[in-house]
Amino acid sequence: MNTNEIRVFCPATIANISCGFDVLGVALASVGDEMVVRKVTEEGIRITKLEGQDLPMETLENVAGVAGLAFLEKSDYQGGFEIEIYKKIKAGSGIGSSAASSTGAVWGMNELLGKPFSTLQLIKFAMEGERLASGVAHADNVAPALFGGFTLVRSYDPLDVVTIHSPAELYATVIHPQIEIKTSDSRKILKTNITLQDGIKQWGNVGGLVAGLFKEDYDLIGRSLVDHIIEPVRSILIPGFDEVKAAAIEAGALGCGISGSGPSIFAFSKGPEIANKVAAAMKEVYEKIGLDYDIHVSKINIEGVREGR
Predict the structure, then answer these.
(1) pLDDT tens digits, residue range 242-252?
(2) Which sequence positions are flagged as catalytic?
(3) Pairing of strands 5-15, 306-307
(4) Which pTM value belongs to this model?
(5) Structural domain tally of the chain?
(6) Residue span of the structural domain in which 29 resides
């Protein structure tokens, strides 16, 4: 076994989960990036291979490089790391492409050095990759990628992340229409102020969703997957959003919303049979529109980032 090298699987994630903008996220089991992280004597971080997406390999322009440098800055390690990235998650898809690269890098580095840092510390390093990608160091993708399952960012200052129970029969269906929406662009259109009335509705749904997950109350989960603040604004950027959402609910989904900043749309269902029906309904909408898409049906990934097999 090579103790200087590790292969890493980094899961895709759904962030916001309708009502939890910048605080809620969940890891997916069926799709993710693969990386190889290697210890070297030369100081610093080098991206030596990048396949699957046209992204920069320069350390300071790549989220894995920036997250890795944040890790090294706090580490006693005198050497450096080489990173190979095999992108399976499309950039700008809304299912945590940048988070997968950021978390995979810091998790792999931490494993090779004997785990000097806690998961919470790794989240802080990975957030620097998110800052590069979106202009904001948010944790709602990197937290579930590292912890697995559902996570709640209770506070950013100080950083406080809570893991949430994942109901055994909960499945996600995610459809990605083949357009790209940059997180930084989709943030620019958001309002900076909300009404008290909308705030009350929203935090009621956040509490309801968390309670529903812990209680495995699928009806409560469904009732809580409502976004009064972000979705009405961002959905206008996504072709066919209202039709896809209506079709998913009609097919039996518990709820449906924008994955991250879009353009992907997610739905939660109870059991794989309904999740696959929802997938068929979503596909039909985009086939009628004539828009290409990728689609994933996935269990919840309760492991998070792990050593690749």
Answers:
(1) 999 999 999 99
(2) 130, 183
(3) antiparallel
(4) 0.94
(5) 2
(6) 5-164
